[in-house]
Amino acid sequence: KQRIFSGVQPSGNLTLGNYLGAIRNWVGLQKNYESIFCVVDLHAITVWQDPEQLRKATREVAAGMIASGVDPKECIIFNQSQVPAHAELAWIFNCVARLGWLNRMTQFKEKAGKNRERASSGLYVYPNLMAADIMIYKATHVPVGEDQKQHLELARDIAQKFNNDYGVDFFPMVEPLILGEAKRVMSLRDGNSKMSKSDPSDNSRINMTDDRDTIAKKIRKAKTDSEPMAETPDGLEGRAEAKNLISIFAALSDRSVADICTEYGGQGFAQFKSDLADLSVSVLGPITEEMKRLCDEKTYIDQVLKEGSEKARKISDPILKDVHKIVGFLQS
Ligand code: AQP
């Protein structure tokens, strides 16, 4: 079996973007790949996290994965900080990646904002840690949302430079798996920015912990334009908000965007929004309930993460050992 790795940051509530862009796709992949899924807490602290909140969010993200159908018996589920090899390989990658490469990363520019001088150095080298997350298992495929494409290209550059510099054929060239009809779910308030856990406006996103009324209200209030709904996907060009809502509908109902356009084309948004709210509640409702139940069973989640990290270490330790040999670290 080929090996996949993917992760989610415990940096707030899981969103519909995390679900459709990543977690839901993992469920379909876990049978065919050896799967390693990680709650990336080292990544989360690149921006300030309250320690108590971080522990809570770590359990919540793990619960969200399991409630969505990621099976801890089938896959490895753990939190990153319990496997120190991630941070160790990241240091080596800090010495492989070039500043020029990191300077091109758009996520750093977006997250650091205008006051770049005050961003943490961790935020800047975030993509090197992400490359290490993947390479420490020699994973070949990474199922992610479209926003992570640039970071994955950087991971390939790092692997290639490492292989060239040391004259080895050690790290594989990783491939992204960007799947589904909602590869990049956008904010409900602004069709040009990504739906994100850390957006200050709660109305911009659907949280996986939102109740039925909150979901319905957020969708009713979601920004649209004044044109009737498009009859074909081409008619969605230049209509970011409408395109976003229709893509979400398509992904949640396992139908194509074209199919949704055929059904609702020519109408106003009211009926569509009401149906989208019902659909969202019917898909997310059972997951939310199961997530809550699992979060009340802290010991179960902690046990899954502990066992997962033991399994992960069994794979990563020998790979890190080989890397030490390749780099020339004396092993006495
Ligand atoms: N809006 C999105 N649409 C599709 N996929 C998305 N992902 C995130 N947002 C969307 C995918 O979810 C996985 C986990 O993401 P992450 O937690 O590592 O961080 P992120 O991409 O930075 O997500 P957020 O929600 O925006 O978190 P914050 O606000 O903390 O930065 C990834 O596979 C990502 O592609």
TrEMBL record:
Subcellular location: Cytoplasm
InterPro entries, sorted: aa-tRNA-synth_I_CS (IPR001412), aa-tRNA-synth_Ic (IPR002305), Rossmann-like_a/b/a_fold (IPR014729), Trp-tRNA-ligase (IPR002306), Trp-tRNA-ligase_bac-type (IPR024109), Trp-tRNA_synthetase (IPR050203)
One biological process term in Gene Ontology: tryptophanyl-tRNA aminoacylation
'KMSKS' region, short sequence motif: residues: 194-198
Binding site for L-tryptophan: D133
Secretion signal, residue range per the UniProt entry: none
Main subcellular localisation: cytoplasm
Record-level GO cellular component terms: cytosol
Record-linked CDD domains: TrpRS_core
Gene3D superfamilies referenced in this protein's UniProt entry, alphabetically: HUPs, Tyrosyl-Transfer RNA Synthetase
Catalytic activity: tRNA(Trp) + L-tryptophan + ATP = L-tryptophyl-tRNA(Trp) + AMP + diphosphate + H(+)
Matching Pfam families: tRNA-synt_1b
Gene Ontology MF annotations: ATP binding; tryptophan-tRNA ligase activity
Short sequence motif 'HIGH' region: positions: 10-18
Binding-site positions, ATP: Q9, P10, S11, G17, N18, G145, E146, D147, V185, K194, M195, S196, K197, S198
Biased composition annotated in UniProt, kind: Basic and acidic residues: 196-213
Annotated spans, Disordered: 190-213
Subunit and interaction comment: Homodimer.
HAMAP family: Trp_tRNA_synth_B (MF_00140_B)
Stored NCBIfam families: trpS
Entry function: Catalyzes the attachment of tryptophan to tRNA(Trp).
Family that this chain belongs to: Belongs to the class-I aminoacyl-tRNA synthetase family.
Protein name, as recorded: Tryptophan--tRNA ligase
